[in-house]
Write a structure and sequence with these properties.
Distance between the termini: 55 Å
Number of domains: 2
Order of helices and strands: HEHEHEEEEHHHHHEEHEEHEEH
Radius of gyration: 21 Å
Number of strands: 12
Structural class: alpha/beta
Strand content: 15-25%
CATH architecture of the largest domain: Alpha-Beta Complex
CATH class of the largest domain: Alpha Beta
CATH topology of the largest domain: inorganic pyrophosphatase (n-terminal core)
Oligomer: single chain
Length: 353
Amino acid sequence: MKASFQARRLVRELKRRGSGLKSLLIMTHDHPDPDSLASAWALAHLAKVLCRARTRIVYGGLIGRKENRMMAEGLGIPAYPLRQGELADWPKIALVDTQPPFKNNRFPSRRRRPELIIDHHPRHSKTQAECAIVDEEVGATTTILAEALLSCGLAVPKRIATAIIYGIGSETQNLGREACGRDIKVYQAFWLKANMRALWRIAYPSRPADFFATLAKGIRNAFVAKNVIGVHLGWVSAPDRVAQIADTLLTHEKMRWSIVTGRYLNRLHVSVRTNDPSGEAGVTLGRLLGRGRGGGHQMVAGGAVEVGAEAPENDWLQAEEKVVADFLEARGVKDCVPRLFPFREDAPSPAAR
């Protein structure tokens, strides 16, 4: 397959730097998902082979979702929590699946400029780097890196091939959500190189009890307003629980949108989903939370607002209500439309409604 312009550009930039790029710190967003983990690992492989560079993959938060932990641990992805003061030890830093102005990474954008950015999210107006490769056409950042690997004709270890398959599949919901022809071609190219048994273990892990507690709370307390379903989860053990419940709620057969909030440390995390391919979920959430605090794609969006770990309960409640009220208004759901809670124990039965 013919590599895209952006993939060829990435390879060209790495070859130009060559052995001059002695080391590269690769940073994902704070709570890396499969797309960011696969992208970072593929970039590390490229930098090692093309530049003989020493690399390290870091993230600023934690890997919370069980599938994501299974991916990192089961495949042996060399990704580590960022250590205090570690950035000062690395003169060259790359960001994957995020950009410096976004509030979901630990890059000190006011003091430094990254060597490299590779991302598929809409480019922020303040994004700057020595080389910024932002390709909104693809459904996953992993696709760009995988195209670069294919264009070089490099041997790709089975574990990295498996990560590429899961990274693209997870980000696009098995090529059904916002995937383009390039995503499909890359997926097909790496499919036979991947470890099927490892993919099965990643996709169907055993889950901790708190997952089921969060799931039960997410369903029991869910509200419905016209074609929108949503819930406030309160405090969560990991921020990616919010996205997970948003995906689950959207499977309600009568719903077109879902919005879920969750409290983690000092931030209120928000996830929005839609089954409308032209829904502009990222644009909508970006307007509600502010550019850099929220964004995404047509069908998927996420973000967070600062509330404060020591903030009183009323501040958290007000933040939750404002996010949902503003979102419902943006979707044309008027204040007079009641929010129903159909899954609570005291809700009327479907026959009575």
